[in-house]
Amino acid sequence: MRDTRAELLIQAETLVRGRGYAGFSYADLAAAVGIRKASIHHHFPSKVDLGAALVAAYAARYEAALAAIRADVADGPGRIEAYGRLYLGGVEQGLGCLCAALAIEGDALPERLRRDIAAFFADHLVWLETVLREGQADSSVRAGTDPGGLARYVIATLEGALLMERLFASPDAFRGTLAVLVGGLRPR
After folding, report:
1. What is the pLDDT of residue 92?
2. Mapped to the 3 state alphabet, what secondary structure does the chain carry?
């Protein structure tokens, strides 16, 4: 049996990651899924409802991935490298990060989406700061730099590399940037 809601979320995520929130309409989504626009409204009465569902699903996938990284990877630099590889899929698909694609639109977005995106990134900053602080405590991450500042640096570096290498279609260059980032976290 067809799961139309799931198909809508998959196609809408691709559209937002490729074009931005303002760059697609329900008509685009209906064409991508092969249904009428009215059917979309049955699942998502408004575009804001759709956007909120996209962010929630994306955040849930990342939450599971971050938990797996903490469980499977022992040291701080290894965890940051695994985190960076989550971004690599976007480069390979020619797509940006969903929440960064939304964040770029800033004040043009509905307040609900701005709050959801801020919460997504706040959760990542907490996770990264914890990983970096633990890495400093076990000496796998160089000491002397504030873990909160490093967490922001990690996200800024990866989001910037994703944006740039999406443009250049260069997963290898993204991997190189990730290697430099991780190498800079290791003790000297």
Report:
1. 85
2. CCCHHHHHHHHHHHHHHHHCCCCCCHHHHHHHHCCCHHHHHHHCCCHHHHHHHHHHHHHHHHHHHHHHHHHHCCCHHHHHHHHHHHHHHHHHHCCCCHHHHHHCCHHHCCHHHHHHHHHHHHHHHHHHHHHHHHHHHCCCCCCCCCHHHHHHHHHHHHHHHHHHHHHHCCHHHHHHHHHHHHHHHCCC
Residue 72, token pair as written in the block: 């499977």
Q: Which two tokens stand for residue 91?
A: 């480069």
The model's pLDDT over 128-161, given as tens digits with 9 standing for 90+, comes to 999 999 999 999 999 999 999 999 999 999 999 9
Non-local (6+) Cβ contacts of 118 within 8 A are: none
**Residue 19 falls within a domain, yes or no?**
no
What is residue 91's predicted lDDT score, i.e. its pLDDT?
A: 85
pTM: 0.91
**Residue 9 near residue 53, CB atoms below 8 Å:** yes
Instruction: Please indicate, yes or no, if residue 7 is contained in any of the structural domains.
Output: no
How many domains does the chain divide into? 1
Q: Which two tokens stand for residue 22?
A: 């303002």
pLDDT of residue 70: 96
User: 76: domain CATH number?
Assistant: 1.10.357.10
